[in-house]
Amino acid sequence: MAIGLTGALTAAWLHLPAAALIGSSLFVSIGSLFRITVDIPGWLRNIAFTVIGCSLGSSITKDALAHAIHWPISLFVLGLAVMAIMFACSWMLTRFFSQSAETAVLATSPGALAYSLGIAAGGIGDIRSILVIQNIRLLLVTTLLPFVLDNFGFELGTVNSAAISGGSGSIVVILISLGVGLSISRWKIPASFLIVGMVLSGIGHYLGLVIGRPPNSFIFLGFAITGSMVGARFASIPLRDLKRLLLASFSVFLLSGLLALAFAVPIANLLNLPYGQVFVAYAPGGVEAMAAMAIALGYDPAFVATHHLFRIFLIFLFLPASLRIVKKIRGQQWVS
After folding, report:
1. Which tops the pLDDT comparison, 4 or 150?
2. Confidence (pLDDT) at 161
3. What pLDDT score was predicted for residue 73?
4. C-alpha–C-alpha distance, residues 5 and 155, integer Å
5. Is the pLDDT of residue 64 over 80?
6. Which pLDDT band, with edges at 50, 70 and 90, does 162 fall under?
7. Residue ranges of the domains in the chain?
8. 10 Å Cβ neighbour count for 183?
């Protein structure tokens, strides 16, 4: 956390976009490569995700939900984007990087690392390749996407620019969300603390029981912890695996990002939404990191979080079927 906070403060001093998220990710990743970092404790991650979830929920108002009537269109296209990304990136890994078809599918399922590793632990695919490709893609999305949005003509959002601190009311919501999150954590729901925080905070704001978002210092720490968690994933990966799979991982990041952008642009035009907001919602990153990025960049965080949670649901639903199809086709036919 000392390394992560140093990176977050340095990035903030340099006025980088999504500074706390980028700085902590980069600094802890470097520390992990030199084997001077360890994983982030579970209880600390849960607090960070709860704070981020409560901040997401602070944007859920009656006016904001009036635009949600158009979300099903965007969610449907997101489903098409997920299938296109998985198919194209899987084909690339088997064709050019000698990965098995099963490994390729699990390595390119966006935002479902824990689920993919759980399947791989049962003897399907190369778990080391899946771990490296997924983690490098997540790091690249977390650190490079804000630079792309800030420097390549994408309009940053204004949703949170005028948000006020909710003071003690927001802190009460955070504490209640932590308690509820702990009670349902045994159900193994993905991003459960973030979801609980977003739902409870959203209900409170919609009913007018809570006003404003969590204090900025809390949000900054939540971003720094989330970024540190992304970087700390490299602490247990052998350097030889990182070198061996670096080009494949970067290629997956680049192709998946371009495909996400290709699907995001027409939807942004159709629904009259900021290009950057839809791009962040479609980008192949983890739900917690992308939700934090939406808050930091001023996009509608409820829109972004809903899309990433929907993508996780789709992957949980269709990934086993995709593996069965791949097993019938056989990876060797993809190469030929």
Report:
1. 4
2. 45
3. 94
4. 28
5. no
6. very low
7. 68-214+237-335
8. 11
Please give the Cα distance from 142 to 138 (Å, whole number).
6
Q: Show the tokens assigned to 156.
A: 């940053």
Q: pTM for this structure?
A: 0.86
Task: Give the 3-state DSSP-derived string for the chain, with helices as H, strands as E and coil as C.
Answer: CHHHHHHHHHHHHCCCCCHHHHHHHHHHHHHHHCCCCCCCCHHHHHHHHHHHHHHHHCCCCHHHHHHHHHHHHHHHHHHHHHHHHHHHHHHHHHHHCCCCHHHHHHHCCCCCHHHHHHHHCCCCCCHHHHHHHHHHHHHHHHHHHHHHHHHCCCCCCCCCCCCCECHHHHHHHHHHHHHHHHHHHHHCCCCHHHHHHHHHHHHHHHCCCCCCECCHHHHHHHHHHHHHHHHHHHHHCCHHHHHHHHHHHHHHHHHHHHHHHHHHHHHHHHHCCCHHHHHHHHCCCCHHHHHHHHHHHCCCHHHHHHHHHHHHHHHHHHHHHHHHHHHHHCHHHHHC
Please report, as a single letter, which amino acid is at residue 100.
Answer: S
For the chain, what is the radius of gyration of the CA atoms?
A: 19
